Amino acid sequence: MKCLVCQEETEKPQDSYCSAHGRAYVNLRQAFAKWATGYGTLTIPEFLEHIGKRSETGEKTREIIQFLSENPSRWT
Ligand SMILES: [Zn+2]
């Protein structure tokens, strides 16, 4: 497979993302789980928008946020 975000070859054939974007995706999911607990009704688009605005958000995370905003069905 090629990474859905940057088209780089993935480490494992069944992976949808390269290692850098895979890690960013997992971190994002974990952050959302924490946020959802704290905020209760936070939606995924709201969450992505908020994280995308933070100055400390890294480049890979921004790229995966962009991707997930355009492809919400990938957030499974
Ligand atoms: Zn990638």
Question: Brief description of this entry?
Answer:
The protein is an all-alpha fold. Helices cover 57% and strands 0% of the residues.
Architecture blueprint of SSEs:
Elements: H1 19-39, H2 44-53, H3 59-70
Helix pairs in contact: 1-3, 2-3
The protein binds zinc ion.
Zinc ion (ZN) binds next to helix 1.
Termini separation comes to 18 Å
List the secondary-structure elements in sequence, H or E.
HHH
The secondary-structure class comes to: mainly alpha
Q: How many beta strands in the DSSP annotation? A: 0
Overall helicity: 55-70%
Radius of gyration: 12 Å
Our estimate of the beta-strand percent is under 5%
Number of helices: 3
Task: Summarize model confidence as the mean pLDDT.
Answer: 94
Form type: globular
Ligands (ions, cofactors included) = zinc ion
Outline the low-pLDDT stretches.
none
Q: How many separate structural domains?
A: 1
Largest sheet: none
Written account of the structure:
The chain has 76 residues and is an all-alpha fold. The chain has one domain. It has helices at 19-39, 44-53, 59-70. The mean pLDDT is 94. The structure holds zinc ion. Zinc ion (ZN) binds next to helix 1.
